[in-house]
Amino acid sequence: CASDKPKDHLLDSHAAAAVMYQKGKSAQDRGDYGTAVRDYQDLEAMYPYGPYAEQAQLNTAYSYYQQGESKAAAAAAERFIKLHPVNPHVDYAWYLKGISQYQEIEGANWNPVPLHQAFDTFETLVKRWPKSAYAADARLRMEKIIDLLGKRNLDICKFYYVRDAYVASANRCQEVVTKYQLSPAREEALYYLYLSYKRLDLAKQAQNTAAILRYNYPQGKYTKKLG
Amino acid sequence: CGVWNWAFGPSAPAPKPMTAMHQEQVTVGFATDWQARLYGNWRLDPYNATQIRVTDHAIYLSDDAGDLLALSRSGRLRWVYRLNGKSPCGPTVADGVVYVGTDRGTLYAVSAAQGKKLWDVQLGAEPSSPITVANQRLFLQLSNGHLLALDAQNGSVDWTFSLPQPSLLLRRSSGIVVSGQTLYTGFADGKLLALNADDGAELWRATIAIPHGNNELARMVDVAATPVLDGNRVIAAAYQGNVAAFSKDSGEQDWARPMSTLLTPILHDGKLFAAGSDGQIYAMDPASGTVEWRNTRFKGQSLSGMTLCDGKLLLSNYAGQVITIDPQTGHRTGQETVSSSGIQTAPVCVGKNRFLVLSGVGTLYQLQFAKP
Amino acid sequence: FTPFTVHNIEIQGLQHITPGTVYNYLPIHIGESVDDALAQKAVQDLYSTGFFRDVSIARSGDDLVVVVKERPIIASIETKGIKAFSKDEVESTLKGIGLEVRHIFNQATLDQVVQGLQQQYEGMGYYDAKITPHVETLPRNRVAIQIDVEQGQQATIKQVNIIGNHAFSENRLRGLFSIGAPDAFSFFSKNDRYSQEKFSKSLEKLNNFYLDHGYLNFAIESSQVQITPNRRFVYLTVNVHEGDVYHISKVDLTGDLILPRSKLEKLIEIHPGERFSKANILATNKAIADELGNYGYAFANTTPVPTVDPKTHEVALNFQVDPGHRVYIRRIDISNNNRSMDYVVRRQFRQMEGSLYNRSLIDRSKLRLEQTGFYQNVTTKTVPVPGHPDQLDLDVAVDERPTGSFSVGVGYSNAQGFLFNGSITQKNFMGTGNALSFSANVGGLGSAFNLSYTNPYFTPDGISLGFNVFRNDTNLSTLAVAPYQEVDLGGAVTLGIPVLEYVYDYMSLGFTHTNITLDTSNPIPLYQNYIDNYGNSTNSFTLGNQLEYNTTNSPIFPTKGLYTSLDLKAAVPPGNLRWYKAEVKANYYHPFTSWLSGGLGMRYGFINSFSGKPVPFFNNFYLGGPLTLPGYQTYAVGPQIDGYPVGGTRELLLDANLYFPLPGLEDNKNFRLNAFVASGWVYGVNAVNDGSTTNYAYSNSYFPSLGEMRTTAGIGLLWISPLGPLRLSVAIPLDKKPGDLTQPLQFTVGNAF
Amino acid sequence: CSIYRVNVQQGNVVSQKELAQIHKGMDKAEVSAVLGAPLLQDPWSSDEWVYSYSDKPAYGSTTVRNVILHFSRDGSLQSISGDVKALAGEKG
């Protein structure tokens, strides 16, 4: 540390920080996340230096997440990432940010913004720290997001098909088939793509799609419907 | 309409009256010769005040509704001429003609005797300084930064001179003083200019004060006082700036003293008297600018006028009091409350130790100095 | 220094930032050669992180020495003396600029804050404001910030003086100014506060006013802002040069019109002979661009080319149309719908994906979304698709309004005494867009239970299906309004069919069982007559058809648009009542300014029986009460028999309203005040006094007579409270007749049943 | 009156005049400069551009018009087929 400060003065500030950190940590362990956050913030204001401050920033994000305050949790994690981009715990910060955004997802047919945000955060985590302890869970959640996005676009495809907007339904189902192959919605999307092409009098494209459906899902419910 | 403004508009903070004087200091008393309740709408707005003009046999002034009045020297109304708008800087009288500019941008010439209109002319903007008559010409400043020289016979424009304006101006502009062929006046950007009175060519330009401060208001250095000629010197004063003296010929600066002032300084037997906008009164040596005495009793007062009368310094304030000061010592010698509605414009000395004062509700008083 | 390869990098002066962070941002690595340029870049990079106050790089042997001084951390921020802005407004602006507790302190940001505050104060006319920041250094490289503010007085405008205007009076021109000398509304509109921005906007309005009246060469020569020495008053002067009036000599249309010429020529709003008018020219441009926008030409624009003939003061106009290229909407992305499901928003859209861009369809879709009442605010934005110049994506962000209200509470309404009510209404049930509501109200007047469910999109094309079941026990005798108790039990099914874009037709089938028990202590021939005709309990089987045209922009607080409806109902066999009823309603709303709007309303209805038996009295029209004629007691207006209002078979209600926000709560969307004048007629039944008892006779005239008119005027407050809509009205009946039951102060909580 | 169904328009408008401006041998960029890119995306067969157009008015039946363009492997236009016929010289 900077040498222009007397040695002992630094030591007792180190000890005082530890006391404050412990106060916050016990509140957090008790599940009293509100006081935990306040204690951590006091600690950071009083002793913004040293490992305790860093850990306090991470715990603040975690406490917000447990309280369900997703936006505050994501912001706190983001701040840690900006301040300590190469800190050994930074992958945890990325993970915290991802699960906070994931917490805001309401479902396939609701606000898509958290879906994309969470996906992008997890993708960064998995790409930059493939061997991180949190990468596995991140991949799991990414798959769940793919399923939701697949279902969302399939529902929109069917919305437009029912209303005779066949270019719109074809494009939306195409999106599911190409961008979200892993989602279970792909099968039904292929079927509706086939129906849309038929309604658009595009026999060649319809046959092409039917062939892919039969090939990928030989015993599928929708293959039978092809007749 | 006026009433509405005053009723609803937030009124100006009540002016603070002067503290009373101890009996033994009072050496000047006042007696009222006459007072006249004037015709017209006199709910005067302090910053639209008229000027009292006096000639040997008449008194001229203009009210808030656009009436030009002529009174006999004993206060009896002689004639009224209806203008097309208010005249924020009041009339000027010269060679039997009354010249007055209105806020509709019109300049009138009215015969002083009968009050008949001789001619009128459109100026294109609101006059912001009193009219000076010299060398058969009328000189005045307009609020858009133009200085006009008009032919006194028919009002045709001989020449104009203009300077770019700062974005925020003070409600008053500098008066114009003419000596021989040279005209001196101050502008809103704190500059003093000397122009050739015949063709408006610029002779020299001097800076009285430089804008300083971090907001628009603090950076105002308008010249609201009329320059004062003293031998080979011209003395000018800027608001939130300095009082400074410059050589009449070259415009070189002799001396400068930081002071913010709005009222025109007065030169009297070798002393220069200046009233600061914070209310302090200074007496200075015009040659060097050194302060001989300073009266801080008036701090925080809002003075409406300062004139010299019968060897005494005569002040008036918006609380409606007239105060005399001994020019030698700077001490107050007398004080009198003329009208609780305030005194809107500077008192005018009419000789034989008498002076005229106009109250805020339109009563004209002629007072004279008397034993206390 | 001379370039050298770096063996080791040593960092001095670190306190809070870890060395790893510095290495991460440092463009120099061990083993690389370093020269002046690279060193300079390294200093730059470290500065741009914003962490450091001072950075210097030196060489010692083969080691690179980086000496940094960290910027201090902000321990506390205090502001004193700020009255013009609220505490959290100030906090959020400071946060916005980057001045936040526990963040890194930077003197430049503090200066920026002071400068910003100064300008904001000056913009509001606080010319005299003095802002002095204090930065106190604390141990461990931290700082406490204190910003002291002396706001001073706000400069008010004393006078606006316009010089050089001949064609229009100064008062008329001053009317254009959004600022001016104080007037009666100044407290509210703050128009007497000088602000530089408002002054330049007003000058622009003045300029446009003259250009709209043919003064092509109008010019504002100069304008001055003069302030008084005591900084309390501002004088504004504007010097104008009007110039001559110009008229239009010729108008033609050139360029690639795409649509038939006659169709576009109809849109031109300025014609030869008329005065030159900038507003009409702009309106023409917009009309043509909008029309082309309906055929996929999103970027169409028209440039009016004037050729001026100064001698004859005439202008020839040539509108050059440039349609640009045809544009399509590739995808519609709906976001921020945390409560409504995606299709609930998407089904209101008339603009399809993969379809030609159509401006009027997008505008219409936005209006339909607002009409659902689910959204406080809907913003649509077109975003270009990369790589496809002729495709746009449409981003739709909705800002949802709480549509449900679960309310259990006690209300008091002087018409019905204490009200215990509980209701679950959810206009957007589980986000499906279907409306489900169950309400129970128990009060002095009786009790009412109602369950209703509506699905506005039973079929994809918007056919709506809804049903409701209800049971009302009304006990008017306790309220001395009418001596009888009434129990209604019934239900109805309604089918809504879209006929045109804004026109809906509702067909309803209803069944009601009504049981009347008379208060024997106080027999009234009218009611006794009913019992003789129909007996105590009756069943009525009603068929209804309502045709509704609605372009208002919100079901709760409409400020714009027209609502009209024609409602025909008939009680038919097998029910034992036989009547037919017709009601016409029309409400027109017009916004005057952003905060003031007006409304005119009309309601006319008549009911006749076609079975020879008189119309049952409980189906009569009643007026009075906060919803119809505030100032009169509920149901109190109309013919009376022995002091009891008995309603009428004809009803006419006219009202005029001015709507404005509650002063002080301008931007709160749940409050609204309205000043109103309303007059109502209830007639068709007149009391006939044949000696002992008063009887009644039905007159079948459809027109009201002046005698029956009741007019009232007053002020009403509507507050969408968590307990449901709360209405408070203070009204004075203007033509009270003896025996009228009036009530100046009235209020109800929850939906009055 | 039959109930009001929402007007649904889909796909690219290709007028005879525009169709007259494209001919065999043109590359993809030149074609999309005249006709614009097809709305119907078909990643599986990028050498075949389908300009499908359909319009279902509020009342009445739906009209469908397709224009199919084939490109060779090297990206030059080989064939133009479909319902809309290019009428040379006729004002669209």
Write a brief caption for the model.
The complex is a heterotetramer of chains A (about 230), B (about 375), C (about 750) and D (about 90). Chain C has twelve helices and 38 strands. With about 750 residues, chain C is α+β, with helices and mostly antiparallel strands.
Would you kindly provide a written description of the structure presented here, covering whatever features stand out?
The complex is a heterotetramer of chains A (227), B (372), C (753) and D (92). Chain A is mainly α. In chain A, 77% of the residues lie in helices and 0% in strands. Chain A is built from eleven helices and no strands. Chain A has helices at 7-29, 33-46, 51-67, 70-83, 90-103, 113-128, 135-162, 166-179, 186-199, 203-216, 221-226. Chain A is elongated. With 372 residues, chain B is mostly beta strands. Chain B is 2% helix and 46% strand. Chain B has one helix at residues 2-8; strands at 29-37, 53-54, 58-62, 67-72, 77-82, 92-94, 97-101, 106-111, 117-122, 132-134, 137-141, 146-151, 157-162, 169-170, 176-179, 182-186, 191-196, 202-207, 228-230, 233-237, 241-247, 253-259, 266-268, 271-275, 281-284, 291-295, 303-309, 312-317, 321-325, 332-337, 348-351, 354-358, 363-370. A four-stranded antiparallel sheet of chain B has the order 1-33-32-31, with no helix packed on it. The longest helix of chain B is centred in the first third of the chain and has 7 residues, at 2-8. The termini of chain B are far apart. The relative contact order of chain B is 0.13. By secondary structure, chain C is of the alpha+beta class. The mean pLDDT of chain C is 84. Chains A and C meet through helix 2, helix 7 and helix 8 of A and helix 1, strand 6, strand 15 and helix 10 of C. Strand 14 of chain B pairs parallel with strand 10 of chain C, so a sheet runs across the interface.
Write the layout of secondary structure elements.
The complex is a heterotetramer of chains A (227), B (372), C (753) and D (92).
Chain B lengths: L1 H7 L20 E9 L15 E2 L3 E5 L4 E6 L4 E6 L9 E3 L2 E5 L4 E6 L5 E6 L9 E3 L2 E5 L4 E6 L5 E6 L6 E2 L5 E4 L2 E5 L4 E6 L5 E6 L20 E3 L2 E5 L3 E7 L5 E7 L6 E3 L2 E5 L5 E4 L6 E5 L7 E7 L2 E6 L3 E5 L6 E6 L10 E4 L2 E5 L4 E8 L2
Antiparallel strand pairs in B: 1-33, 2-3, 3-4, 4-5, 6-7, 7-8, 8-9, 10-11, 11-12, 12-13, 15-16, 16-17, 17-18, 19-20, 20-21, 21-22, 23-24, 24-25, 25-26, 27-28, 28-29, 29-30, 31-32, 32-33
Chain C lengths: L3 E2 L2 E5 L6 H7 L7 E2 L1 H13 L3 E9 L2 E8 L2 E8 L6 H11 L9 H17 L6 E9 L3 E9 L5 E8 L6 H6 L10 H4 L6 H17 L6 E9 L5 E9 L5 E9 L5 H5 L12 H16 L7 E9 L4 E9 L5 E8 L6 H5 L8 E2 L2 H13 L3 E11 L2 E13 L3 E10 L3 E13 L4 E10 L2 E10 L8 E12 L8 E17 L2 E16 L6 H10 L2 E14 L10 E12 L6 E13 L5 E13 L30 E2 L2 E2 L4 E11 L10 E13 L1 E6 L2 E6 L11 E12 L2 E10 L11 E5 L4
Parallel strand pairs in C: 2-5, 6-8, 9-11, 12-14, 15-18
Antiparallel strand pairs in C: 1-3, 4-5, 7-8, 10-11, 13-14, 15-16, 17-18, 19-20, 20-21, 21-22, 22-23, 23-24, 24-25, 25-26, 26-27, 27-28, 28-29, 29-32, 30-31, 32-33, 33-36, 34-35, 36-37, 37-38
Chain D lengths: L7 E4 L4 H5 L7 H8 L12 E9 L6 E9 L5 E6 L10
Antiparallel strand pairs in D: 1-2, 2-3, 3-4
